[in-house]
Specification:
It is a single chain. 38% of the residues lie in helices and 28% in strands. It has 439 residues and is α/β, with parallel strands linked by helices. It has five domains: 46 residues; 44 residues, no CATH class; 104 residues, Sandwich (Immunoglobulin-like); 48 residues, no CATH class; 157 residues, Rossmann fold (3-Layer(aba) Sandwich), CATH 3.40.50.410. The strands form five sheets. Strands 16-15-14-17-18-20-19 form a seven-stranded mixed beta sheet, sandwiched between helices. A four-stranded antiparallel beta sheet has the order 5-4-8-9. Strands 1-3-6 form a three-stranded antiparallel beta sheet, with no helix packed on it. Strand 19 and strand 20 form a beta hairpin. Helix 8 runs parallel beside helix 9. The termini are far apart. Pfam families: DUF58.
Length: 439
Amino acid sequence: MNRKARRSSRRSALNRRAGQSLSMASEALQVLREYLRPAASRARTYSDRFIGPLGSVISPLGFAVLGTTVLLWILGAVFGWQEAVLGAFMATVLLLAAVGFILGRNDFSVQLDLHRTRVAVGDRAVGALQVTNKASRSAAPVMMELPVGHGATAFRIPRLATAQEHEELFTIPTQRRQVLNVGPVRSVRQDPFAILRRQVKWTETYELFIHPKTTGLDGSSAGFIRDLEGMPTSDLSNSDVSFHALRDYQPGDDRRHIHWKSTARTGQLMVRQFEETRRSHLALSLSTNLEEYSEAHAEEDFELAVSVAASIGQQAVAEQRKLAILTQEGPVRTDSGRMMMDGLTRIEAAPVLRENLVDVVRHTADTVPGASVVFFLTGTRTSAKALRAAWMHVPAGVRAIAIRCESGIEPTRSNIGELTVLSLGKLDELGLMLRKAVA
């Protein structure tokens, strides 16, 4: 037993010593970390101040040439290789020559003018780049770059005398709906071998909105948006625009509503009574789930659905109707026609989403409880069962119209219960299909 006790006590002592050693090592590491933290912070500061700008000037080829130059100098000095020394000398001369190409500065006044910052798909987006030499001496020719989206366009600016101007016109393609970042305009100096490259920014970045293509509905919405007075309800009101009947005057009634002809005929004060009206409130549920659109050209069909939403939205804004547009990403701002089109331009489809059309319609019903007309905008891969499930979330008495988009199909109209289902193949057919929907 004594031997076992001694072994146990010896083992406990070893564990205590190991724990103390680990604790001391941890404390030492903590002290070392606290000591090195200011040094690391200073190193990051120096890196951002010196190495960062250096990296923006030296190209990958330049770093390769610089590294090769240093290596050749070391080999020539250590091993006495004349070939290495000669190669290092030539590489050094090449680097010094490249430095000469990027030296110097320009004093320009650069203006980037986009004729319109909002255009529709297919419209011309034109702009102008104006460069003025503000220096007291002539400016050497320089290359100006204009980034547009993920690409860039280069303009060769010739030699400019003092106060001389040079203007370049350009056109931006607008084949697809998107938001393009245009600018900043930057002057570029680089050597012929692109070892060193120096850029100077002259303007800010501008956003060019390429709105979805739309079609005019020409009042075809009048059948389902109702008239200007909205939809009469069974609730009576003392002040509205939908006349209901006459009743006896009661103390407190507005004298402006007294019907004097009936009062003179009956000998008693009679006042008008009205029905409360419900202003038309349009709600659009736009699905961004590409799995609900045709497998062959899902993105093209989705663009058609966005154009349908934009066309109906523009008609609602023109008629001063309340409008709400919701997608899986959330609501689109519809405070004005411009905000609505900008929001629809920013919408992007996703190949796989957990939420489908049914979820969007449910969110729409919860967000816009006072809607009078609800549109479902989706693709042809949305089944009739899914459309019925989405329609079940629409409150009773609300008109629901589903528009299934697939490029090139023949337009058709069908019904699932009280839900009107339209299949659309071309944007130009939207007005005719809406008129058939309310016929």
